[in-house]
Amino acid sequence: MSNANDHFWQLDLSDKSIPRYIAVEGPIGVGKTTLTKNLASTFNYDTLLERAEDNPFLDRFYAHEKNSALPTQLFFLFQRIQQLNELRQGDMFQPVRVADFLIEKDPLFAQVTLNEDELKLYQQVFDHMAIDAPTPDLVIYLQASTDVLLDRIHSRGIRSEQTIDHHYLQRLNDAYTHFFHYYDSAPLLIVNASEIDWVNNPDDYRELVNYMLDITRGRHYYNPQPTILR
Length: 230
Fold this sequence. Notes:
globular
């Protein structure tokens, strides 16, 4: 289980109905992994995280090597399926955890990065994989403008990400918007993450969590005014 001793992220949850399986999604740099870890700390949940650092093709892909796009995408697909299979095998039919990815969104990266022939091959592989993913009790989709994403990517300073350009991020952002416009497989919370700061501001974080815990079905939008630390 995640460490729940960080009181910065703890809330009074005594009268709340907490989703047992939460998926946090959004484009690169939007803050999904940070929010996932904070939620895991608050709820004392395990995390199911994308392990981008394990992908041996990713640095070459970010360096604009076109022939690395397909192996990069397939590696992530196989990795995510393996993680979900492990989730199923470990008495996790009633999972108590929070993930920073949703397997159903995997093809949208392929649509952005692959050429026509590569996309056909990827889609054949995806369609023939036995993906038995549990349905989240809540999906949180984090949105931010492409300029904000690019600023955050540059600020966090991961070397391989510094070559990501505005055009690629814009296409990815558009693909996410299109995907979640039609998503209805689970309750969905769409969060404007451009201004709020759940990393450093406990009030921003608590307000978001209190809002999400009232969601049991349907589509919801969270677009708060940023709070200011005093």
